[in-house]
Amino acid sequence: MPARTSADVVVDSRVVIPAEEFAWSFVRSSGPGGQNVNKVSSKAVLRWKPRASSSLPEAIRERFLTRYASRLTGDGELILTSDESRDQAQNAARCRDKLRELVRSVVAAPRPRRPTRPTKGAQQRRRAAKQHQSRKKQLRGRIPREE
């Protein structure tokens, strides 16, 4: 296993995404910033292909691809951007933090749902509420005339 660098994304002890898997680009940021915004490319754009990543265990990769399918491009690429800071390095670090949180959210397998049944008391309360509502609506009808 190659030595870790500060540019690697360490999710937990099992999952470390090496910096070689990322494609970085830096573009001009939008928003306020005066003349600085027009001449400094401080917005960080991180591109990563989770399907081709050898650093993700298969189960985690499948959960990631399922949960974040809508965030992937047609080529299966995840694009994360950050232009919160005026510093390029801070924006790159923020992109790595965003990726860490996305992967961390799918590391733990979801617990299987165990089907449960309503208690007898809950069933009785539900029926009583339905009968009460039914009586209330029946009283709203026309009253027959007595002749």
Query: Tally of extended strands?
Result: 5
Shape: elongated
The ordered H/E elements are EEEHEHEHH
Mean pLDDT: 86
Which structural class best describes the helix and strand composition?
A: alpha+beta
Your description of this structure?
Keywords: Hydrolase. Residues 14-140 form the Prokaryotic-type class I peptide chain release factors domain. GO terms for molecular function: peptidyl-tRNA hydrolase activity; ribosome binding; translation release factor activity. The protein is α+β, with helices and mostly antiparallel strands and 147 residues long. It has a domain at 9-107: Double Stranded RNA Binding Domain. It is 36% helix and 14% strand. The protein is built from 4 helices and 5 strands. The chain has helices at residues 36-39, 58-67, 88-107, 120-138, and strands at residues 9-10, 16-17, 22-27, 43-48, 78-82. The strands form 2 sheets. Strands 3-4-5 form a 3-stranded antiparallel β-sheet, covered by helices on one side. A hairpin with a 5-residue loop joins β1 (9-10) and β2. α2 (58-67) crosses α3 (88-107). The protein is elongated, with a radius of gyration of 28 Å. The mean pLDDT is 86.
Quick overview:
Keywords: Hydrolase. The chain is α+β, with helices and mostly antiparallel strands and 147 residues long.
Per-chain topology:
Layout: E1 9-10, E2 16-17, E3 22-27, H1 36-39, E4 43-48, H2 58-67, E5 78-82, H3 88-107, H4 120-138
Antiparallel strand pairs: 1-2, 3-4, 4-5
Helix pairs in contact: 2-3
